Amino acid sequence: MTQEELLPLIYKKDDRAFTLLYDMYSKSLFGVISNLIKDREEAEDVLQDVFVKIWKNIDSYSEDKGRFYTWIVNIARNSSIDKLRSKGFNNSQKNLSADNFVHLLDDNTRMNNKIDSIGIQEFVKKLKPKCIKIIDLLFFKGYTQQEASDELEIPLGTVKTQNRNCINELRNLLQVS
Amino acid sequence: MSTQEYIESGILELYVYGKLNDSEVEEVVKMAKQHAEIRAEIIEIENAMVYLSGSVAPRLSGKNYEAIKQQIFGSETKVVDLKPEVKPKSGISQYLGWAAAIVFLVGGGYLYQQVEGKKEAIANIEKEKGKLQEAVVDLELKNKANEEALALVRDPKNTIVPLAGQEVSPTSFAKVYWNQETQTVYIDGAGLPEPPEGYVYQVWALKLNPLTPLSIGLLDDFKGDNKRLFPVDNVVEAEAFGITLEPAGGSVSPTLEQLYTLGKV
Higher-confidence residue: B105 or B154? Predict the structure, then answer.
């Protein structure tokens, strides 16, 4: 199932489309949200909000503005950051948690997920540390290239290609596992 | 840039992340429409990101799905229930609404156009302003340079030596401004033709008896300096000044066949 097949169903707004949408993206969005919001219940609240926002604002999405997935990940990041701000966290994205997405795997509450997380830990932990950092900042935390370049102390001009190499590495790991 | 280079540049990853500006997104969307390879690559990157972020997500209980469904469809169902109670309108009232809507739309469209037009006008004016400012700065710099040149030339302590055109170039002329107090010598070369490629004017201070030439400098960058006012080395003693055309870099002694201008002090 791809965005091209899913979107026509969503536009009709029937609940079968909603189920498909949820199945395709809920885990991914929850991963992004949980990386920003440590509290489990709050993260779940944000996830619910995000799906309601997606559903209600679907008409403002246009395929000319980019991928549907990009649009919904953006909603997830922004809603998480709004939530943090409402709780008095500093406004700057640079003050987001220093933890990266790999830490989520060490969370004890994942016990239920133990079986599939073993295989997952294998491939995620094979990523180079610098790749984990760059993917964490740009994708999970939504840093700009400039902010990522400052944070990682690498030249701005190389952020794009370093990230590309890391995603290639990730794709290779996914094919092997 | 080939399709492969475009893919390798890493722009598609940032596109999926949502890190590109509007015009960059527009470009990627256009490229994706044209090239199946790029579409396939975008989907693979997207799948990798969906998988990676999904893999690190904590376990998600089914109650979230139910809660969201309730929030979305719970309220919509009620709206559907109300529908039969809406009575069909009759007569002119149903057209009034449409008419108002059309007036509103047309009015809105007109206003939108007006605003867009003004925005463009403002942007153009800003651009013009920027250009004018640049021009003003440019002129100020030129003016300053001119004033400096004028001050040098006007100094009453100058000894002014006019140099007249010689056999090679009878129409040429030049002037030497020799300030013995500040020990500076300037050559006004405005009356000399542009030197041919690979040649340069060389200025000589001359003692006449016996004829002893002393090189005091080259009129370098003749084309670039549009005032043609050149500082040269100071001289202590000179009875005449001459300017000859010499191969680039200058010569040890003057090529007298190429003597352009000459004048006695």
Answer: B105
Contacts 24+ apart (CB under 8 A), B198-201: B198/B247, B198/B248, B199/B245, B199/B246, B199/B247, B199/B248, B200/B245, B200/B246, B200/B247, B200/B248, B200/B249, B200/B250, B201/B243, B201/B244, B201/B245, B201/B246, B201/B260
Q: Which of B52, B70, B80 is the mutation pick for testing A, counting most A CBs within 10 A?
A: B52
Q: Taking the model in full, what pTM does it have? A: 0.55
Instruction: Characterize the bridge pairing of strands B240-247 and B229-232.
Output: unpaired
Q: B18-57: per-residue pLDDT in tens?
A: 999 999 999 999 999 999 999 999 999 999 999 999 988 9
C-beta separation of B19 from A148 below 8 A: no
Using only C-alpha atoms, what is the Rg of chain B?
41
Contact residues on chain A for B59, CB-CB shorter than 8 A: 109-110, 112-113
DSSP secondary structure string for all residues of B57-95: SPP--HHHHHHHHHHHHHHHHHHHHHGGGSPPP-TTHHH
Summarised one tens digit per residue, pLDDT across range B192-224 is 998 888 899 999 999 888 888 899 999 888 877
> Measured between beta carbons, which residues in chain A are less than 8 angstroms from residue B70?
none
**Mutation site for B-interface testing, chosen from A3, A19, A25, A27 by largest number of B Cβ within 10 Å:** A27
- Cα of A82 to nearest chain B Cα, Å: 18
Buried b (16+ CB within 10 A) or exposed e, B141-169: eeeeeeeeeeebeeeeebeebebebbeeb
Non-local CB neighbours of B145 within 8 Å, separated by 6+ positions: B227
CA atoms of A31 and A44, how far apart (whole Å): 11
Query: Are the CB atoms for A67 and B16 separated by under 8 Å?
Result: yes
For residue A15, give the nearest of B78, B66, B50 by alpha carbon: B66
Q: Of how many residues is chain B composed?
A: 265
Put simply, whether B62 touches A (Cβ < 8 Å) is no
